[in-house]
Design brief:
Helix content: over 70%
Order of helices and strands: HHHHHHHHHH
Strand content: under 5%
Number of helices: 10
Number of strands: 0
Radius of gyration: 18 Å
Shape: elongated
Length: 191
């Protein structure tokens, strides 16, 4: 009988579970960074259309690929039933796909703004990860992507693949940063 026993996690416990199970966001950002890398390569050596389609269509495979990598690493691809942040995670996950019509509209106006607009939408998508994971690094990631998107549109928009290369690099760096933070926390809790 569990009446009178609080089985709900605290926010700190819920965030710690996210950091531990999802390795500080490592696998999701790794997959995203590699996808942006593919799109950047296609934008540089292929056509803008192929690069844009690769990024948008490939984006729908980020979750399944991340889940696969989590399973392969021996981690659970989902949170425990008592974690109150699970629903927030799903809501945050849909921020970016729901922003794509705006990215498309901006790109119809000026194709060279595709990556900068996508960067701003991606940066906005990452801001709630700060609370979700309890990791301030997501504030920096969000700021770099939003600021980088705006700066790219204003000062380097004529170089179509520039934003893609920049985003790929930023996502990959932050993937490994998140993994490092999660590893450090795991070591500290289990010396």
């Amino acid at each position: 009988m569990t009446e009178g026993i609080n089985t709900r996690m605290t926010v700190d416990e819920a965030q710690r579970e996210l950091r531990r199970e999802f390795y500080g966001g490592f696998f999701g950002q790794l997959v995203s960074g590699l996808l942006w890398l593919v799109s950047a390569a296609l934008a540089t050596w292929g056509t803008p259309r192929r690069a844009m389609v690769a990024l948008v269509v490939g984006g729908f495979f980020i979750f399944p690929l991340t889940t696969l990598l989590l399973r392969m690493s021996g981690r659970r691809p989902s949170l425990s039933a008592g974690n109150p942040l699970g629903q927030l995670g799903w809501q945050v996950a849909f921020v970016l796909p729901l922003s794509l019509p705006l990215v498309a509209a901006v790109s119809l106006y000026k194709i060279s703004w595709f990556y900068p607009a996508f960067m701003v939408a991606l940066g906005a998508h990452y801001l709630p990860f700060t609370f979700l994971y309890g990791m301030r690094m997501f504030i920096a990631l969000s700021a770099i992507l939003v600021g980088g998107g705006l700066a790219t549109a204003l000062y380097a928009g004529w170089i179509f693949p520039f934003g893609a290369w920049l985003t790929a690099a930023v996502l990959l760096v932050f993937a490994f940063l998140g993994r490092s933070i999660a590893r450090g926390e795991a070591r500290a809790s289990h010396p």
